[in-house]
């Protein structure tokens, strides 16, 4: 069956400016050696003869319309359902959209390149793994071709899609670098390990990062290395500073996420020293980007990085920038102090010793923050530990055992608490933990003996009071209210009786001043209220039932120990 989708009608313009019908044929494209390029071919439907042969010129308006149409088509695909959108991008991939974009990105037309960049961004957003797989296959094919050409002593230049993206980012002519920012975001997505797949047979992260650091990283760092050959940036204009800031942002991202590959690259290529040259830039944002790059490295607390920093004395550009900034309170000042504060708080011993030994004289006069004095104190503590290792070991032992308790002791205490009856708790008996039972017997018996002596003295005084009260012939009623366990309220009332012998208010009686249990005398009827536990009540003064309640009052005024004996 004839493929009607590629069936075309061919007309040619004759010398008289008229259109001649050449017939119907089928169109195809291919490389024509005679024309030295990709050409459009139309062969006759009847006999297969060549009706048209024309080299494809990428600078034509027709080519621009095709790219812009494809761009609008990709934008429209964002409104499709997920399964339809997947089918659309898979169709584009099968038809060779990525090799076509590689050709279009190599054109000189900025509008065509901009449209191709938008199409590439849609593809990366849809499936970054598809783009990574393509560029790795492309690199493998180029390596195979390079080996054959090397055997034939022919040199070739590898042009990879991802390197074209980096080059367009570096060579962006826009003063605001709008296109470069977009391309940097695409590169960041491609090198982000979070969206890389890992299967049982292969790991995309390992393969792609190995490819990227081998074939692409030198292209990304080329403007940085070219601009930092001296102690100051070779070019310090605004557009160059913006470009280097973008490069540093991507490198900082790599430091955070590509621990192994970026570490080897930074140390082998001495990247950090080159980056710190930018601390001398007149553009504060670029100097802060360089400082952020170093801060990210220090934040990893990796001794490989630390030894590299100390060996190359890479704190010197930072200290110079700090001193040149003077007493101005700005972002540069705060960022540098924060970096040294991080070293102090995290107690990075190697960097602390390096900073104090080499830069203390330049920093000792800074007294508006305690960061550098704190670093000096840390350094002195380290020296003290080195000089007296026994002291350091003793501190570690005390630190490890200061608040530790035996787990078995805690279990015993909990079990004793649950096994204790509430009646025992109401009687005021405290639960003694097994750990407390290990105390010295002398330390325990001493307070117990004192308590018993006080108890005996109190009992003897109470006996004397009761005896005198019985002999007096008249007693004020005493009421004792026990409201709850552990909370007792004694309400004692006394009626004043003037000049009655044996009364509590008379001289020599138990209620008189100076005698035990005395209450101050008043002209009117008074009441002495003794409260324990914050409970207060009102007491009536009965006159007729005093003799009947005398025995009960005596029993209530007895101590708890004696009351328990009488009850038994």
Structural class: alpha+beta
Radius of gyration (CA) equals 48 Å
Output mean pLDDT.
75
Helix content: 55-70%
Tally the beta strands. Answer: 7
Sheet with most strands: strand arrangement: 1-2-3-4
Q: Low-confidence parts lasting 5 or more residues at pLDDT below 50? A: 1-5, 152-157, 425-441, 473-541
Inertia-based shape: elongated
Strand content: 5-15%
Distance between termini?
119 Å
Number of H- or I-type helical stretches: 25
Q: Main sheet, how many strands, which sense, barrel?
A: 4 strands, antiparallel
Question: What would you note in describing this structure?
Answer:
Residues 59-381 form the Serine/threonine-protein phosphatase 4 regulatory subunit 3-like central domain. One of its GO terms (biological process) is DNA damage response. With 568 residues, this protein is of the alpha+beta class. Among the domains are: 6-55, Pleckstrin-homology domain (PH domain)/Phosphotyrosine-binding domain (PTB) (PH-domain like, Roll), CATH 2.30.29.30; 313-388, no CATH class. It contains 25 helices and seven strands. The chain has helices at residues 61-77, 82-94, 97-105, 110-126, 128-151, 161-170, 178-190, 204-215, 217-220, 222-227, 238-257, 259-269, 271-276, 284-299, 303-311, 316-325, 331-345, 349-363, 371-387, 389-401, 407-419, 422-426, 441-472, 550-557, 560-567; strands spanning 7-13, 19-32, 37-44, 50-55, 478-484, 487-494, 526-531. The strands form two sheets. Strands 1-2-3-4 form a four-stranded antiparallel β-sheet, with no helix packed on it. Strands 5-6-7 form a three-stranded antiparallel β-sheet, covered by helices on one side. The radius of gyration is 48 Å and the shape is elongated. The model is unreliable at 1-5, 152-157, 425-441 and 473-541 (pLDDT under 50).
